[in-house]
């Protein structure tokens, strides 16, 4: 029997990862998804709700990222992180059957991470594909859009992402540098243009007008349902941890990248959100845009030009696709066992598997008008659940009076328990609310079926583990040779 080792188990060369470039790659995802998911937030919450829930989400999610940054500083090697946490929790809390608990925690969390990043890779391509379709609608009024058109474009982009992650893998650092420039200059160009040319709403209207488009009969609940938008915009700074084996001085570099990403992009995302809210115009007109994306309509209303709206949207499409590239790279390295293609130093088989899974997930959109929200929600809740497992381990140690190992470069110190608990409270709230459908009393087509897919994957993984996988499953750390 051939045992597949982690691809970086024997690597001695470490890549130099630029903090600005990694933060910018995440930033591209924040900017474009902040615009794209605005539909959900504006429908459930309105302009005031979207702004306030964004601030709330930043504070709550910031606690989670800070907690994970501390973990990254403790255990820079991402492959070993979960195993070490499980060992530490079991050893210090003195739970019975140590090996079973360690294996189970590793197994379930691994499934959740893989599910989250696989869904992220699919949703990024789906977003870019349907944005392209939105531009076709804008520029060709006689075009009759079909749901499957956008889906096929998205599938084509999956294969483009496959090509870049395999054939052009060695050029990814250069691509990140270009994306950094596009991110910065694109942000300035879009915000300046929209602020300069769009009619502005009053501050009173923006900061006090709520919307209950989902017919929840409660503005507070409607605003909480809209938590999907800011959560999707801010999630993902931990992606770098999944390639920590390729990073030089990971215990120091990774926390810096995570904190830089969540801080810088939260600010940029907030500026973009406020820009949208002030320059929105007629909310009903924007939400009912034939392009399918309110931000395309906002761009057109500002410039009164198809060319101008297309140019600004093209920037977001590139950044959206950049996020898909990153998600495919991360998702392919989240699997427990995979081989490295000889001479390439990349997990070719895992990247191919991610491609197949992305195509299958995008295929959901052939039968559902809200497939995007389902894909986004599915990936988001899976990642949130994996965050809760790791942060919960830290909190459990501290509650029992057993302080975890201190981070070499970044430690929360005496504030650790408070930060961990606040992070868990926010993550639990977001985990529940993201499963809500976009409206009350949805029909079969508009229902948020991500809860069914998530529960099915989780149940299948647990059943499979106890029905047989438990006997032969080996945690990845057992296969890694430490240098």
- Terminal Cα span: 25 Å
Largest sheet: none
Radius of gyration, whole Å: 22 Å
| Count of discrete alpha- or pi-helical segments spanning 4 or more residues | 18
**Structural shape:** globular
Share of residues in helices: 55-70%
Average per-residue pLDDT, rounded, comes to: 77
The portion of residues forming beta strands comes to under 5%
Label the structural class.
Answer: mainly alpha
- Strands, count: 0
Give unreliable regions as ranges. 1-28, 78-98, 479-483
The run of helices and strands is: HHHHHHHHHHHHHHHHHH
Give an overview in words.
This protein has 483 residues and is mainly alpha-helical. Helix content is 69%, strand content 0%. Helix 1 (19-36) runs antiparallel to helix 10 (228-234) and helix 13 (294-303) runs antiparallel to helix 14.
């Amino acid at each position: 029997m051939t045992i597949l080792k982690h691809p970086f188990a024997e690597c001695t060369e470490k890549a130099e990862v630029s903090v600005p470039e990694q933060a910018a790659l995440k930033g591209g995802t924040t900017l474009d998804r902040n615009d794209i998911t605005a539909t959900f937030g504006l429908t459930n919450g309105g302009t005031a709700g979207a702004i306030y829930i964004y601030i709330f989400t930043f504070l709550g999610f910031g606690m989670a990222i800070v907690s994970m940054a501390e973990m990254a500083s403790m255990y820079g090697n991402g492959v070993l992180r979960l195993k070490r946490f499980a060992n530490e929790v079991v050893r210090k809390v003195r739970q019975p059957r140590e090996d079973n608990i360690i294996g189970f925690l590793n197994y379930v969390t691994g499934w959740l991470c893989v599910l989250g990043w696989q869904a992220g890779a699919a949703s990024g391509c789906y977003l870019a594909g349907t944005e392209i379709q939105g531009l076709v609608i804008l520029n060709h009024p006689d075009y009759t859009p079909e749901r499957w058109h956008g889906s096929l474009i998205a599938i084509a982009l999956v294969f483009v992402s496959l090509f870049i992650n395999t054939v052009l893998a060695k050029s990814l650092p250069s691509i990140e540098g270009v994306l950094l420039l596009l991110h910065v200059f694109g942000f300035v160009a879009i915000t300046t243009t929209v602020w300069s040319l769009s009619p502005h709403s009053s501050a009173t209207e923006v900061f006090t007008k709520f919307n209950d488009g989902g017919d929840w009969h409660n503005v507070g609940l409607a605003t909480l349902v809209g938590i999907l938008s800011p959560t999707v915009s801010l999630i993902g700074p931990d992606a770098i941890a999944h390639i920590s084996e390729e990073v030089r001085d990971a215990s120091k570099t990774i926390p810096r990248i995570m904190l830089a990403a969540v801080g810088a992009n939260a600010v940029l995302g907030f500026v973009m959100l406020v820009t949208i809210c002030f320059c929105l115009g007629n909310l009903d007109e924007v939400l009912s845009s034939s392009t399918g994306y309110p931000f395309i309509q906002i761009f057109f209303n500002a410039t009164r030009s198809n060319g101008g709206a297309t140019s600004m949207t093209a920037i977001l499409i590139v950044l959206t696709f950049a996020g898909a590239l990153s998600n495919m790279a991360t998702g392919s390295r989240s699997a427990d066992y995979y081989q490295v293609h000889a001479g390439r130093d990349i997990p070719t088989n895992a990247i191919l598997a991610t491609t197949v899974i992305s195509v299958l997930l995008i295929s959901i959109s052939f039968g559902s008008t809200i497939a995007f929200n389902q894909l986004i929600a599915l990936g988001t809740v899976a990642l949130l659940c994996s965050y809760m497992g790791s942060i919960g381990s830290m909190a459990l140690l501290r509650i029992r009076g057993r302080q975890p190992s201190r981070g070499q470069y970044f430690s929360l110190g005496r504030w650790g328990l408070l930060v961990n608990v606040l992070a868990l409270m926010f993550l639990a709230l977001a985990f529940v609310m993201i499963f809500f459908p976009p409206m009350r009393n949805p029909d079969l087509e508009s229902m948020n079926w991500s809860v069914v897919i998530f529960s099915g994957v989780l149940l299948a993984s647990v059943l499979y583990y106890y029905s047989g996988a438990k006997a032969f499953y080996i945690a990845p750390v057992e296969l890694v040779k430490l240098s």
